[in-house]
Design goal:
The chain is of the alpha/beta class. It has 17 helices and 13 strands. The chain has 3 domains: about 140 residues, Nitrogenase molybdenum iron protein domain (Rossmann fold); about 120 residues, Rossmann fold (3-Layer(aba) Sandwich), CATH 3.40.50; about 150 residues, Rossmann fold. α13 links the parallel β9 and β10. α7 runs parallel beside α10, α12 packs parallel to α17 and α13 runs parallel beside α14. The chain binds iron/sulfur cluster.
Length: about 450
């Protein structure tokens, strides 16, 4: 059910441009610039730095009253100049914030002017995305940034131009598979996906790749832009892949995969995040079908260990009444896992306004209270009346958890008050196994009066 509240008190979502940063940061040598007020950049830099425990640079065009009245073109051009001089990026992702959207700046046009006027812009790729926070949440910001990125870059090769990509581990030039990470996950999750695909011997283009850029090793000479990310050439080449799979695209509106299908006739399969046995099996079945190759033996054993863990944990977690909240795809994956474990999700909530989510959640847990566009004040009301044993979601639910004396298992973004968000693995058989352990332990600790 969509929130009926007339005022937002404590939204269960974040600003729209924040989602775009997660995409731009997953591109090799790419810097993000917000066109809007300085405070937006400062707030989101801090927010992400606290979650990932990494420095996060986000430039700003720093619009002031003058820009608001006369337009922000001069500020944006100066900001782009400064970013190129200071960071020497190969790409700049430009996301708007509320002020730039309200005054109606035409960012693509300003960027075209900048490219025509400024020699420094010659070797830089610009990806602009419209992200008015009053219109949608960080999840939509993530989706539209990913789509715009592919729209800007993906190209068929020029006739006679040739290409060397698509080389699989077997040495065949065969067209790779685009693996789009359609929903916000952790660097550990992306590392897991890459390991799985490498062990399988598949040729793939994974986008966006935050495995290193949001979780970099300690180094003496820290580069201005973190190393790693999907190479721009790979993104260009995504137009030549033989298939696209969006992982975490179950209930999203058309995105990058749909664009590649429409524009380049690349078959597209949107899948849920592989959390829980069924959703993991769906990913494996899809890859087996696309490649004709069976999943490597080691992962079969991993699946068996997950089953064993589920059986072991069942006596602890079965019948536990839960409230699950956060990003749509993560919440659906968690809910599916809970139903597989015999748990009883009572509240399934997201801050995003997404009717497809409500439909999917109702199928998974028909007796639960489903909330979209949710506010924590509304979630708290439901928690207080439904005898909840465990809350599962971002740390922003902690005030509700404390007030209602319900333990909170922190899963997803943001997580500011516990360490290890970057290393939190929830995808695949292995990640699901860790989740089962954590669910069981949270309930045991709660029964023993331990930490919530
Ligand atoms: S709501 Fe708009 S103005 Fe406020 S921080 Fe978010 S993007 Fe910036």
């Amino acid at each position: 059910m969509l929130s009926k509240s007339l005022a937002t008190v404590n939204p269960c979502s974040m600003c729209m441009p924040m989602g775009s940063v997660l995409v731009f940061r997953g591109i090799e040598n790419c810097m993000t610039l917000f066109h809007g007020s300085q405070g937006c950049s400062t707030y989101m830099r801090l927010y992400l730095a606290h979650h990932f425990r990494e420095p996060v640079d986000i430039a700003s065009s720093a619009l002031s009253e003058k820009g608001a009245v006369y337009g922000g073109a001069a500020n944006l051009k100066q900001g782009l100049r400064n970013v190129i001089k200071g960071y020497n990026p190969k790409a700049i992702g430009i996301a708007t914030t509320c002020l730039a959207e309200t005054i109606g700046d035409d960012v693509p046009q300003i960027v075209r002017e900048f490219q025509a006027e400024e020699p420094l812009a010659k070797d830089v790729t610009f990806i602009s995305v419209s992200t008015p926070s009053y219109a949608a949440s960080h999840e939509v910001g993530y989706r539209v940034a990913l789509k715009n990125l592919v729209q800007t870059l993906a190209r068929k090769p020029e006739p006679g131009g040739g290409r060397t990509s698509g080389l699989t581990n077997n040495g065949r030039i065969d067209g790779r598979i685009n693996i789009l990470v359609g929903s916000i996950v952790s660097p550990a999750d992306v590392r897991y996906l890459k390991r799985l695909l490498d062990d399988w011997g598949l040729g793939y283009i994974l986008l966006p790749d935050i495995s290193e850029t949001f979780d970099a090793p300690l180094s003496e000479d820290m580069p201005r832009i973190p190393l790693g990310g999907t190479p721009l050439d790979d993104i260009r080449d995504s137009a030549n892949s033989k298939a696209t799979v969006t992982i975490g695209g179950l209930v999203q509106e058309p995105g990058a995969g749909d664009f590649l299908k429409k524009e380049f006739e690349i078959p597209h399969t949107p899948l849920p995040l592989p959390i829980g046995l069924e959703y993991c099996d769906r990913l494996v079945a899809c890859l087996e079908e696309l490649t004709g190759e069976a999943m490597p033996e080691g992962y079969e054993r991993e699946r068996g260990r997950l089953l064993d863990t589920m059986v072991d944990a069942h006596k602890i977690v079965a019948d536990a009444r839960t409230a699950v909240f956060g990003d749509t795809e993560t919440v659906l994956g968690l809910t599916r896992l809970m139903t597989e474990l015999g748990m009883r999700p009572q509240i399934i909530a997201t801050g995003a306004i997404n009717p497809a989510f409500a439909e999917a959640a109702a199928k998974l847990a028909p007796d639960s209270r489903i909330m979209t566009g949710a506010d924590y004040s509304e979630i708290a009301e439901e928690v207080s009346t439904r005898g909840i044993d465990l809350m599962v979601g971002p740390f922003t639910g902690r005030q509700t958890a404390k007030k209602e004396k319900v333990p909170l298992l922190r899963v997803g973004l943001p997580n500011h008050d516990r360490f290890g968000a970057s290393h939190q693995l929830m995808l695949g058989y292995e990640g699901t196994m860790h989740l089962v352990d954590r669910l069981a332990n949270a309930l045991i600790e709660s029964k023993e009066g331990g930490p919530a």
